[in-house]
Amino acid sequence: xxxxxxxxxxxxxxxxxxxxxxxxxxxxxxxxxxxxxxxxxxxxxxxxxxxxxxxxxxxxxxxxxxxxxxxxxxxxxxxxxxxxxxxxxxxxxxxxxxxxxxxxxxxxxxxxxxxxxxxxxxxxxxxxxxxxxxxxxxxxxxxxxxxxxxxxxxxxxxxxxxxxxxxxxxxxxxxxxxxxxxxxxxxxxxxxxxxxxxxxxxxxxxxxxxxxxxxxxxxxxxxxxxxxxxxxxxxxxxxxxxxxxxxxxxxxxxxxxxxxxxxxxxxxxxxxxxxxxxxxxxxxxxxxxxxxxxxxxxxxxxxxxxxxxxxxxxxxxxxxxxxxxxxxxxxxxxxxxxxxxxxxxxxxxxxxxxxxxxxxxxxxxxxxxxxxxxxxxxxxxxxxxxxxxxxxxxxxxxxxxxxxxxxxxxxxxxxxxxxxxxxxxxxxxxxxxxxxxxxxxxxxxxxxxxxxxxxxxxxxxxxxxxxxxxxxxxxxxxxxxxxxxxxxxxxxxxxxxxxxxxxxxxxxxxx
Length: 511
Ligand SMILES: Cc1cc2nc3c(=O)[nH]c(=O)nc-3n(C[C@H](O)[C@H](O)[C@H](O)COP(=O)(O)OP(=O)(O)OC[C@H]3O[C@@H](n4cnc5c(N)ncnc54)[C@H](O)[C@@H]3O)c2cc1C
Description:
Mean pLDDT: 92
CATH superfamily of the largest domain: FAD/NAD(P)-binding domain
CATH architecture of the largest domain: 3-Layer(bba) Sandwich
CATH class of the largest domain: Alpha Beta
Largest sheet: 9 strands, mixed
Bound molecules: flavin-adenine dinucleotide
């Protein structure tokens, strides 16, 4: 059925403004009242129109969930609050980590789901659910293959991304342009080809449930303020996390409440709150991906390639303050702790050339954000730091690199890393990119209650679900955000199609 027809139906529900109060303290009465206003009891047979599977949020997770549900034979509607689906996915570099994909095997990399799971568990210090980590580690490779082979996505193995920040081997896959824009457009094209009905400017604003806790339908709000109801057999929440909700950040990640948020504005935590309103439990709500390499003035990220090739971070005292390649996510908070809450990435000619192979660095360079220094005095002038301190800092890195050994932070340097002039530099700051905690789901993306029982037909994927990062900032593995989005999206879509199909058969038998 044409969605325009459905939205012309005259069922109008007045939805409360849930967005202003969803960040309140979870123990307060107001919070509980706000949560209960997100769901309402309504019989499944009371809707004028129903769709087997509804997916809310058309980022990478929602698109993959919709694709998988369509592959499973279900009619799927994909609701997106914006006029064009973009989400944080479009802001990303489109990089997806996955083990044992066909393209990783072709690249000659020895990897396995077991090694990937071990990396995930070690990165979180053993604080992640090992069974869940194993599911994601096992299913990510087949998900990348499915996207390429079944849905024609132009994903390629990234030969340039080194094994680092917790990945013990190279395992990143990306669109050829290295942009999330290319990834989201390719996903949207694939979903359209698969028959997924995308409905834009359609914000999930409320859910309906029956006495058993099963979702019976959704309320969709239009930019005009009108809203309409649609029944459904299964609901997949894929509206991402809560980075754009200052109240939820203050409540769950107080250390980042003053940090700059560099993600999509739609990540307001609504899907997580809806899941809670339906009885879903949450986990690791203090987890997030921070990043220290945001060139804020240029709206781009200084590519980690310049750091892999020996680049260092120097503060306005002229000093280094960390092992720059050990913890990409926790780096954000460490830079925020420096004078001016910023630092300068300083790198040599080889690193500069490696960085310029990437789209973000090309943009920063074109805008004049990468400065060249021919002497230590030049560099100190650009950074605004004492020459003596900077001279000592560079000398220490140089000696370490030439000796092919580790520095005082335990970071190994090679001779090619030596900071020989000319050097290049770009100013960076710490930011909050996306949250990693969310609804607890099982290996099929099905939302679980506190007691571990699954809600009958509610699923979550991407930033709305708990991730594989454990608590805090330091468990985030590079490219785990999209790995989770596409992998859990696919698993949730497959299972939602089965649940909705079984419900249809039951309904038919009852008639
Ligand atoms: C700058 C940046 C770079 C990154 N780079 C990478 C990378 O290279 N690799 C990686 O793995 N991760 C990266 N990440 C993280 C990655 O982008 C996210 O983990 C991933 O995009 C999450 O996908 P998602 O589908 O859950 O969310 P999103 O892509 O944000 O999609 C959620 C969608 O839901 C919609 N929505 C929200 N509320 C509603 C509602 N009520 N009703 C209907 N629709 C709604 C939003 O408009 C949005 O379109 C990066 C993040 C940022 C910010």
